[in-house]
Amino acid sequence: MEEKSIEDYYSVKPEYVPTLYALQVELLKLQKHIKENNLRLAIFFEGRDTAGKGSAITRFSQFLNPQLYRSIALGKPSKVEKGQWYFQRYLKQMPNAGRIAFFDRSWYNRAVVEPVMGFCSDEQHELFMDQVNLVEKMLIDDGIVIIKLWFSIESSEQARRIAERLQTPLIQWKVSPVDLAAQEKWEDFTHYKDKMFKLTNSDHAPWMIIKGESREATRIQSMKYVLSKFEYQNKDQELCIPDPLKIYKYRLP
């Protein structure tokens, strides 16, 4: 791929900044609403490697009050956690009253990444698939708002972004063994992704698919969707309408 200049990594599309700014103002209004009404919001950011999950969370939380949200990106389970119920370490991270939790990957690791990479057994995978809808229904019935976002990306774009990471000192740390296997195991990821959508897309916690045209577009549409799920004081209603051609509920093919 063509090597980027230093300026390329710090530049953004001019039309993106005003929209991002306005949406970040709305997110501050939403955070205030959640705090004042003791709401609990958990947002799951899922997708293939390099799809832009982490950078989206960065833009979501950039100007929020850090005392009122947490960003969760759990690593490999400890020896103790391996002996626990799979959901246990994630449930500890669920938001308290008046708080938001951003999950940079969630328990859906066991739906896609773990079986593809051989990090869990078939039995563990199937048990997760049997339990996850019930777990989410119980949390939602208890008052937690769960939003599940899937950042979609094409194979060619993923290959470009992996190469970009490998060539750029500032983001080389992002490259993991899963990243390096992503292209080789593309079809395996697709198989488990489709299975996950089919079995875990529920009325109480639907999957929202975001078309990954660009990192900027996915951030904007995911922000708009989250804001559209709440009514709060001084909301800019028109700004918070997501584009149904760019973000939409999963439907069986």
Report what the structure shows.
This protein is α/β, with parallel strands linked by helices and 253 residues long. It has one domain (6-249): P-loop containing nucleotide triphosphate hydrolases (Rossmann fold). Helices cover 46% and strands 13% of the residues. It is built from 11 helices and 6 strands. The chain has helices at residues 6-10, 16-36, 53-61, 79-82, 88-91, 113-117, 122-141, 155-167, 177-182, 186-200, 215-228; strands at residues 40-47, 69-72, 99-104, 144-151, 207-210, 247-249. The longest helix is centred in the first third of the chain and has 21 residues, at 16-36. It starts with 5 loop residues before the first helix and ends with a strand.
Helix coverage percent of residues?
40-55%
Ends distance: 35 Å
Overall pLDDT, averaged? Answer: 92
* Corresponding CATH superfamily: P-loop containing nucleotide triphosphate hydrolases
Reported for the largest beta sheet, the result is:
6 strands, mixed
Topology:
Elements: H1 6-10, H2 16-36, E1 40-47, H3 53-61, E2 69-72, H4 79-82, H5 88-91, E3 99-104, H6 113-117, H7 122-141, E4 144-151, H8 155-167, H9 177-182, H10 186-200, E5 207-210, H11 215-228, E6 247-249
Parallel strand pairs: 1-3, 1-4, 2-3, 4-5
Antiparallel strand pairs: 5-6
